[in-house]
Amino acid sequence: MSPITVFQARQILTMNPRQPHATHVAVREGCILGVGDLARMQAFGDFTLDTRYADQVLMPGLVEGHSHLMAGGLWKFSFVGFHARTSPDGRVWEGCRNFDEVIARLRAADAALTDPQAPLLAWGFDPLFFGTERMTVEHLDQVSTTRPVVILHASQHLMNVNRAALAAAGIDRDTDIEGIARFADGEPSGELQEFAAMFPITRLVGNIFRITGSSPESLRLFGQMARLAGVTTATDLVNDLAEPNHAAMMQVTGEPGFPVRLVPAYLCLDGSLNRAQGAARIRQRQAEAEGNAKLHYGLVKIVADGSIQGFTARLRWPGYHNGAPNGIWILPPAELKAAIRDFHAQGFQLHIHTNGDEATELALDGIEEALAAHPRADHRHTLQHCQMADAAQFRRMATLGVCANLFANHIYYWGEAHLAQTMGPDRAFRMDACATALAHGVPLAIHSDAPITPLAPLFTAWCAVNRLTSSGRVLGEAERIGVPEALWAITQGAAYTLGLDDRIGSIEVGKWADFCVLHESPLAVAPEALKDLRVAGTVIGGVPTEAAT
């Protein structure tokens, strides 16, 4: 019989409502054999008592239900976001507080490049923090007039480029693609909105922003970030599952020390595969990964609209508070419904990006029609972000068996801008309405969408509990949820949306022995201190990882 290890902790928060607390957990063959006190462990016979966590707190490994593997590899490029961020190596990148600071950072990066033809890439920019001024080619031509300069916005739904990039990509005043912003004279301004407009640039530079999530080196960086955040299962919610991506994920998840289980969701961005071919690729990858407990295929990503802060999300009346035109359909409504119908009919679980409430309504229409044509119990289709859903839409989700994974971090990072510019009063107060979702019985997760915001589920839980903006304003007190509900959303709730709640999300017999190790209990600190809890390490499959702090 395989050896048994019993981990002792000051407290174990199991997230199992039938046995919420314990002090010891027995592990055999990477799975949980028993939970309770030391006396209960005696029933299992001989075991090794591991006391390394005797003064610390265990809870289930945290589950990030919406992230992107590029969050690790993007740190190969310059960060030009408004809020400070910490890279996987521990370096703190101060925020760029105005356009001049963005340009200065890019000039420094330009000076460091040795290849005069290489594009200069940066990420994290968001003009919403700078009032009404938009970045244009006039700004980025100050960095270089010869090499392409490409900045991916924080939302990843927009980018800014200089004239050299526009010329190299063949974008000019006669290019007829929706989403190319223009000056009054018709010339492209350098802002490109959504995937169709960005495609000529990503083709030019090799879509490096996506490639950053597909190399073994980048995946190891992502694993390091996950471990530091207490995350033991994370998604990659845009992945075409091409051979290089699959090979890299198989490689790193097969390495004994890799500290996170990966759950990629299929999405073909370049149109090279139709839906039938995409479904075949998913099934092929499922077969190839069979037996790999750290790599799970079967999710499909569908993108309905854009981003609220980029003014490309689709909104119902009264639209954008500042009068901006309605957003962009990433998939035209008929095509969106067809994608939902076809992938649903083939048995896949759908994760549908809907930021605006008009997009949410269309996605629910599509799911309802798909269920009528192809009834399926327990499908767990999940609306991702779903930021502007109202009570009627949450009631409809509950009726249809649809889950919601809400972008709680938006309240902190963009709350003030949503109040003043995008949504205005009332609607900003009900953004990411966790309390309403729970009140109507919708299975709930909350997320970071890393690298859009930092991978840090305890911070995400803090956002949902406190709903504080970066300036300290409470935005929508009625939508606050309690700490226990927020902890459920980053463990069992997220696991449920991934169809993995039978294996992760709580500490109970039969599940994988994945734990997050904390110095203090999240139930013992003030709700305002939830984001400040220190992660001491993780355990995955019963194997402790290197200490995080």
TrEMBL record:
Single GO MF annotation: hydrolase activity, acting on carbon-nitrogen (but not peptide) bonds
Pfam family membership, one: Amidohydro_3
Record keywords, A-Z: Hydrolase
SUPFAM superfamilies the record matches: Composite domain of metallo-dependent hydrolases, Metallo-dependent hydrolases
The keyword Metal-binding appears for this protein: no
Domain Amidohydrolase per the UniProt entry, residue ranges: 56-544
CDD domains: YtcJ_like
InterPro entries, per the entry: Amidohydro_3, Metal-dep_hydrolase_composite, Metal_Hydrolase, YtcJ-like
The protein, known as: Amidohydrolase
Species: Pseudacidovorax intermedius
